[in-house]
Design a protein that fits this description.
Layout (H helix, E strand, L loop, with lengths): L8 H15 L4 E6 L6 H11 L4 E7 L10 H7 L4 H8 L19 H10 L3 E7 L6 H11 L7 E7 L9 H7 L5 E5 L5 H8 L6 H8 L3 H9 L9 H10 L3 H10 L8 H15 L1 H5 L3 E4 L2 E4 L2 H9 L3 H16 L6 H10 L3 H17 L3 H11 L8 H17 L3 H18 L2 H17 L3 H15 L5 H17 L3 H18 L2 H17 L5 H14 L3 H17 L3 H18 L2 H17 L3 H12 L6 H17 L5 H15 L2 H18 L2 H11 L9 H14 L1 E3 L6 E3 L7 H11 L7 H10 L3 H11 L2 H8 L5 H14 L2 H13 L10 H4 L7 H11 L4 H8 L3 H15 L4 H10 L17
Parallel strand pairs: 1-4, 1-5, 2-3, 3-4
Antiparallel strand pairs: 6-7, 8-9
Helix pairs in contact: 1-2, 4-5, 6-7, 8-9, 10-11, 11-15, 12-13, 16-17, 17-18, 18-19, 19-20, 20-21, 20-22, 21-22, 22-23, 22-24, 23-24, 24-25, 24-26, 25-26, 26-27, 26-28, 27-28, 28-29, 28-30, 29-30, 30-31, 30-32, 31-32, 32-33, 32-34, 33-34, 34-35, 34-36, 36-37, 36-38, 37-38, 38-39, 39-40, 40-41, ...
Length: about 900
């Protein structure tokens, strides 16, 4: 085996086995990982050289450009092979299918073509190298393929560095691999013995070389080829030392090549260098600095190319980039992304302005929104060189790409500036189309009032024009906002009008999205047929390749099913939708559906399983206000149930944001959470304040389950509700009168009264705790069932309710129930042990053990060794402890533990006490 592949036999054997399995019809993803210089490319080359002749090998790689060309590695892989994927990638206006409706996902033709490509041979090995540089469209195709690879006679071999930043989109691909058959092949550093074998006969000490290089094969080889001093921090010096031995003409040629990422095609190299300089590179090839590949000349390793480039003076680097730019311009159809890359590096604003906007739009059209954003940002500093209309269009596009990057507030600013520029130009139709986008930006930023006004202005501008598609789009967004806030009759009118205009324009995509929001509006006005419209919107969107609309349909349908208490159907909907959204990269929809998946778990009593997920979502720093009011109220509500005083400020903030956002769902989630907290803490004044604002928003038929729940908490607090005007006053005594209960029952007895959730709350309001408890048992919500059973006059029934509450960790409600028993002079069953009672943050048993040791000053590694856990697991436990205790340091956690009596004794698990 060649020296550079020492200790790689196991990796090759594993990869060959995956290829052999593909010949038998069992496909897989092979993930080859390791640090830069570890030998990933060498392993791939040996595998390709030795692969079974029956296996078709396709190979492409990702380039380190400021904005890689969309789908470039896939184009490279099939460039000389023909077939369905090459045809789809070569289609005009890539890559929307000719028959697809406007608005279809750009990859609607590429995705099935990829699967057809991998079915087109006895077996296929598709290699995509350096996916840490992949564009978003490529990542989308790889995710789609990975999820289906098990049924294909193919191996998808991906190589990547193992130090990629957590925010990089490639992690979306890695996350998707949980649903795929995966062969993971991490490459480790070479052992001291292997380095000694490489150093044999060179005069270098193998042990010293291993210590110096850490066993990285590239650093070892560079050190051996230079002066023996290459390390991960001194690779530039090692490459410089190797190049110093080359002739000046060869060094000059290398300097020119080093500013071009990856391989330089032979035609381009000939233009850049001329015949003499090109011939001079033979010396660099002989010395192992560069190599000749099928796709041209390339440095033996990217690290070497970067090292030489970094050693160039800035002025010279710019001039070399400009030479590449001039050579690329001479090509018949140059890659626009490469033109922009070299224009930016060469400080050529004229080329950036001339090419950047069209390159950005091409990237966006292919679904590579991250790359489109980078390209637009490269043009922005030179926007004054554009004409007025082009400048406004650039800002409009920039706002849209900021929106796709979930930078919603920045998108608002860019879009509003574009609208002002269109207004200054007197181009009202363009301003109207721009305002449609701005409305969406504002909505996602939580600025619902502004979004409604902006959509209304877009409608005013476009409704009487000849552009039916633009008018339909404006009416659609206006109707969507009205459907999600509180003007449902107007929403229906706007959306029906939008459907008519969309039909005239032949825009089936807009019609499909209208169905989505029309379904919501009809449910809100009491038309149960709205659910069928939501389902139809999902089916139609899927059939037409409208992938974002599929995800949006799943999101809205899941919300409605959860509200109505159809937990089983809601769970199935959001889990299917979540897988779909994650596969296609729809982050905000995935966030929403993950919340609702956890809420189903919470309703079913899986509090310990739901809490970590809700906490992770609530603590994300990148969610907009619109999504904040979905996750945070429920997370704070759960913490309130567990007696955590830190829930109060979270609920106050969530309620404030929900009121500003005006979304019905946000208002309901935050308001109901606040009402439950008010009951648990006996804060009638806060309940009255919240109810006075919340109940009028819940007066329509579709909100019957929400209103029923709100009234149930008010009655528990002894607050009476006037069904005529919804003012709220404190009722005398500790419980509502029968009359108040009848009023509340009438209030919730709307068109949605057939729903079990509404009926269960209504029974509780009437004082019929037994019926309510039975209905909650049928529904599968143990917490609500226990709250109703706790109303029983029978001590054994109350004891059973307390056992359920204690088992859930519902500390606050259990305290209330025990307090009522004491007030009645009844026997009070024992609660949780002292350690748990002193643990209002509801730490798990494992977290109590970790906190006990943490308080004793032990490190995470020591705790891990003692508890037989991984250090990473302990890290997660410590982070959760900090969060639950509301602290930031180990010292603060130890102080909180002492204050609450949490220590070694309380951390010892006890058998649960069962009331007599």
């Amino acid at each position: 085996m060649p020296a550079q592949l020492l200790e790689r036999r196991s990796a090759l054997t594993t990869l060959r086995a995956a290829v052999d399995a593909a010949l038998g019809g069992a496909g897989s993803v092979a993930l080859l990982t390791g640090e830069a210089g570890i030998g990933k490319t060498s392993v791939v080359r040996h595998l390709l050289a030795e692969v079974d002749p029956a296996v078709r090998a396709l190979s492409g790689g990702c380039d380190d450009l400021i904005a890689p060309a969309p789908l470039a590695p896939l184009r490279e892989a099939v460039a000389n092979h023909g077939g369905p994927l090459a045809a789809a990638l070569a289609a005009p206006h890539l890559p929307t299918a000719p028959s697809a409706p406007a608005g279809a996902h750009p990859l609607v033709a590429v995705l099935p073509a990829m699967l057809a490509e991998l079915r087109g041979a006895p077996a296929t090995l598709l290699v995509v190298e350096d996916i840490h540089w992949a564009d978003e469209a490529t990542i989308d195709v790889l995710i789609y393929t990975a999820r289906r690879i098990g049924s294909l006679p193919a191996v998808l071999l991906l190589t990547m560095r193992d130090d990629v930043d957590d925010a990089h989109p490639v992690h979306r691909l890695l996350g998707s691999l949980t649903a795929a058959p995966v062969v993971r092949v991490p490459l480790a550093a070479l052992s001291a013995a292997a380095v000694a074998r490489m150093a044999a006969g060179t005069g270098h000490d193998g042990a010293a070389l291993h210590a110096l290089t850490g066993g990285n094969p590239f650093f070892v080889s560079e050190s051996l080829a230079s002066d023996g001093s290459a390390t991960s921090g001194a690779v530039r010096d090692a490459v410089r030392a190797r190049c110093r031995r080359l002739a000046p003409a060869c060094q000059e040629a290398l300097a020119q090549l080093c500013v071009v990422p990856r391989a330089v095609g032979m035609d381009l190299a000939a233009i850049l260098l001329g015949p003499q300089a090109l011939a001079a590179l033979a010396e660099a090839e002989q010395n192992g600095v560069i190599e000749v590949r099928p796709d041209g000349l390339a440095f033996r390793h990217e690290l070497a190319r970067r090292a030489i480039e970094a050693d160039l003076p800035e002025l010279r680097r710019r001039l070399l980039h400009r030479r590449v730019l001039a050579a690329l311009r001479a090509e018949s159809s140059p890659d626009r992304g490469r033109l922009v890359h070299h224009a930016v590096a060469g400080d050529d604003p004229a080329t950036v302005v001339a090419v950047g906007p069209s390159a950005a739009r091409a990237a966006a059209a292919a679904g590579s929104h991250r790359q489109a954003l980078v390209l637009l940002e490269s043009v922005l500093p030179y926007r004054d060189q554009l004409g007025g209309a082009e400048s406004a269009a650039l800002l409009d596009d920039y706002g849209w790409e900021l929106y796709n990057a979930h930078r919603f507030h920045e998108a608002v600013r860019a879009g509003e500036q574009a609208a002002r520029e269109y207004a200054a130009l007197g181009d009202e139709p363009a301003r109207g189309r721009c305002l449609i986008r701005v409305s969406r930006h504002q909505f996602m930023a939580g600025e619902t009032d502004a979004a409604e006004r902006t959509a209304g202005e877009a409608v005013r501008i476009l409704e009487n024009g000849a552009d039916d598609a633009a008018a339909a789009h404006a009416l659609l967004y206006q109707g969507a906002i009205l459907a999600l806030t509180d003007d449902f009759a107007r929403a229906v009118t706007a959306l029906e009008s939008a459907r008519k205009r969309a039909g005239r324009a032949g825009r089936t995509d807009l019609d499909t999205l209208c169905l989505n929001y029309l379904g919501i509006a009809r449910i809100e006005v009491g038309d149960a047929g709205g659910l069928a419209m939501l389902r139809q919107s999902v089916d139609t969107a899927r059939a037409d390749g409208l992938l974002e609309y599929v995800a949006r349909g799943y999101t809205n349908l899941g919300e409605m099913l959860f509200r109505m208490g159809a937990l089983g159907e809601a769970a199935g909907c959001v889990r299917a939708g979540l897988a779909f959204a994650e596969e296609h990269g729809f982050w905000s929809h995935a966030y929403n559906m993950r919340v609702h998946d956890l809420l189903v778990e919470l309703r079913r009593g899986g509090w310990d399983r739901a809490e970590p997920g809700l906490r992770a979502l609530a603590q994300r720093q990148d969610h907009p206000d619109m999504l904040y009011v979905y996750s945070v109220p429920w997370y704070a509500r759960l913490r309130a149930r567990r007696g955590d005083p830190a829930a109060a400020p979270l609920l106050a903030q969530a309620w404030d944001r929900a009121r500003r956002g005006r979304l019905l769902l946000g208002m309901a989630y935050a308001g109901l959470a606040y009402l439950e907290w008010a009951w648990l803490t006996n804060d009638r004044q806060r309940a009255e304040e919240v109810a006075a604002e919340l109940l009028p928003r819940l007066a329509h038929p579709g909100a019957a389950p929400f209103r029923a729940e709100a009234v149930r908490y008010l009655v528990r607090l002894g607050v009476s509700v006037d069904p005529a005007s919804s003012p709220v006053t404190a009722a005398a005594g500790t419980q509502a009168s029968d009359a108040a209960g009848r009023q509340a029952s009438d209030l919730v007895g709307t068109q949605a009264s057939e729903l079990v959730v509404t009926q269960a709350y209504a029974a509780g309001v009437r004082g019929d705790w037994a019926t309510a408890a039975a209905q909650w048992a049928t529904h599968g919500d143990p917490y609500e069932q226990a709250l109703e059973l706790a109303e029983s006059p029978d001590a054994d029934t109350v004891a059973g309710a307390l056992q359920t509450l204690d088992g859930l960790g519902a500390v606050a409600a259990a305290d209330l129930v025990r307090g009522r028993l004491r007030d009645r002079g009844a026997r009070v069953p024992r609660g949780a042990r002292r350690g748990t009672r002193a643990n209002p943050a509801h730490l798990t048993e494992r977290q109590l053990l970790v906190l006990s040791q943490l308080s004793a000053g032990r490190t995470n590694a020591e705790i891990a060794a003692d508890l037989v856990l991984s250090v990473r697991t302990v890290d997660h436990h410590v982070a959760a402890i900090f969060d639950k205790l509301g602290v930031r340091t180990r010292q603060e956690a130890a102080a909180a533990a002492r204050a609450r009596g949490i220590g070694p004794a309380s951390a010892t698990p006890e058998a649960p006490h069962r009331p007599a």
